[in-house]
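Schema walkthrough. Field components (list of strings):
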Amino acid sequence: MNPALTKVIAQTEQVILGKPRQIRLALTCLLARGHLLIEDLPGVGKTTLAHVLAKTLGLQFQRIQFTSDMLPADILGVSIYQRDSGEFKFHAGPIFAQMILADEVNRATPKTQSALLEAMEEHQVTSEGETRPLPTPFFVIATQNPTNQIGTFPLPESQLDRFLMRIQLGYPDAQAERGLLAGIERRDLIAELKPQMETAELMALQLQVRQVLVSPALLDYVQAILRHTRESARFVHGLSPRAGLSLLAAARAWALLDGRNAAIPEDIQAVLPGVASHRLQSVQDVHTSDGDKLARELIEAVAIP
Amino acid sequence: MKLTAPLTFGLIACILLVSAPHAEHLPLWVSTVCAALLAWRAYLTWGGYPMPARWLLLSVTVACVFAIAITFRTLFGREVGVALLILLATLKLLELKAVRDAAVLVYLSCFIIITNFFYSQSIPTALYMLLTLLVIMATWVHMQTGALAFKPRLRIAVVLLLQAIPLSLIIFVLFPRVQGPLWGMPQDAYATSGLSDTMSPGSMSKLSLSDAVAFRATFVGRTPLREQMYWRGPVLWDYDGLTWTRGHNATLRRPALTDTTQLVDYTVTLEPHNKRWLFVLDMPAKLSISAELAPDFQLLSMAPVNARTRYTANSFLSYRANLEEQPQQLQRALALPQGYNPQTRQLAAEWRAQSASPEALVRTVITYFNRQGFEYTLEPPLLGLNGVDEFLFGTKKGFCEHYAGSFVVLMRAAGIPARVVTGYQGGEYNELGDYYIIRQADAHAWAEVWLRERGWVRVDPTAAISPERIQSGLSSALPDNAALPFLGRNPPEWLRGLRLNWDALANQWNQWVLGYNTERQFAFLTRMGMEDITWQKMALNMLAGIALLVGVFTLLMLRRLAARKTDAVQTVWLKVCRRLEKAGLPRAAHEGPMDYATRIAAVHPDLAEDIHDIAARYASLRYGGEAEQDGLAAFKDAVRAFKL
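Field assembly_structure (string):
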């Protein structure tokens, strides 16, 4: 594997204890130029993960705390009249950063949510008729409280689709929790972190992900998975072509993280729960479907051709 | 595959669809019990409740069988069989335990489909059964494939049915036929109404309420005028004061036609009516099937017509019939019951004294009917003991049987031999199929009188009262508010067109599908270029055709499979997997090569190196873009060297 990537992973694992898989998935997402949605209870380390990643990768970091009274301009920025020059000057909003932590995104109103999601999709912000590009790389980690909590506007399916992956952190295991409780305060740890990678290097890696080979045999497998979700009576809808593209992009990044230059079925299976869980709905229990369980079921139901 | 709720609902739908058409003729209680059982089963499935206890099911079953035995007074025969089959199939739904039971129900549904054709073989029935078959197939596919969603399931069922169509066509065309109806049951009571061989006031007007098709006729060459179309049926001689019957002919001599002109040539497709008479135009000269020609020109087939029968016939529209009639027959044509209808007899005697000749007498009577305010109606008042007297001098309202009957009584009383002829008159022309449809509503009765020098001459007294009936049909002869069959009225043009279209289609169906018997089969195959047709030859051709089709389908399928199997790398990999499977370490279908190798290495640390090497080579060849000529040989060597 790329030595810089190894160091990034090692340093992150020092702060986020007992979550190597989630860290790898988050990095996969970043390398595949996708955005990440973390859905979990407050206090399991969502914010810390984002913070650590930004620090370790040496990216400009901005945190936006979403609230129900937030307006799109609070994120994108506004033009303010300058009395001395007699002109309007654009004051960039917090979105103009390389890594954004959109905290509790489902507490904002749909209008504000859409402003963020459009910026995510297009990598640019259009305000008062002027289009301004966002910095590169541009990576959004959004966190979401479980939707059954009070005061939330759950993201509609079409917007969930904008996120490459959705992962859950979950409680740490006993050993990791012990380390967490006994160790130094995380905040102090983060302050001491040093960047392990240049931005240029990260962007080179992103380009390298696109070079990872995907063979026709692997495409057969991806198509078999997509077809199964569409034909099976288990799911409300099948996966979209965009989901198929996302699956491939994530699998390529996962392969690269594993030090390979070709993707294999195992890569697809590794990223499938993250990529598919927020895009699939079980027919039986529409409201409380466990996306990961569905994705595992899906993996087991499709034979590798 | 488990017995899931959707599968159970599918099975309920199958049984419901196949047994629904039977509700029409099964006893009401059977239909009700079946519906209740189906509803109960659906409720149990819907709520996920447990199945009924065994003793309960057993007692319901025994009770049902007993009730059937009591209702039908037997446990044998078609009706009983169908009723039992449907009841038991419904009960079987209530003891569904394993997938095996579901399979039994699916096959049972297919069998019940056939029983529906005992009762109707029309196009709608066939289409409905096709739809039912599709549902059954989809349920069967569901049973076989499990988690597949509804649409792909239906697609498989449709594809299977479409593939079956060429096969069934080959079998239909070439399967050697036996003579007789498709479901050869001699006692089949298809027809509920039809012309009988007795006539009493009210019998014809009752028939005229029926839209049912009696027969269809196609003319070859010239077509007679509508008022010439008298389709001859039973000839009635004997009268007991109320009812006309055929009686017994006093001679066996064949009737003779002389001075014949105006030949017409036509084909009749007669609907089954369970009687022996065949209908032909006055007067028949030639018939394509064997039949008996009675001395009164009535044609009787050798056995009751219980299957749709097709025959061609020749008739002469102008003739002299039986110029020399047997004296005994003339005696019969003069007989009248003693003591009835004195007024009529008196009137006849007066007329006879006044008339110069029998012809003049006939004219007098016809004029009488025409001038004395007689009315043509479907609902004549009831008549008493001296029916003819009451009709002629009292009510003066009647349908064709009243006019024909009283005319013959008048003739006989006046000493002129006369008889009643029943049959059909006219018919509706279908421009699309170029044929005539003759319905029960066209049933008619007229009279024949025997005149020296002219033989038997047809006289239709109805024509004197209501010429419209003869020229344009029943609907135009009756007032608008008469209780006519729906289709007997003058319907709007589009409806008439639709109805004629439909009948033309039904006619083709009758001729080519239901009526595809030995003769048609031979004719068709000869036209297709087959020579010296024997049933062995047909069977051989059929088997060859089936083999060819199955071969083509197999080839297509193999090609699709081969496209998947030609991958050399995959073949070698599958070989390794098979060897490991024999050693008790099967690869799950969704397991990737690296994961598999890791799992095997955990169980057999001694194999770890080799299996990882093989998996890596495989992944590199299959997924890593390594060219086959570079890595395949080494991969094969590694696999060959691999020892368990």
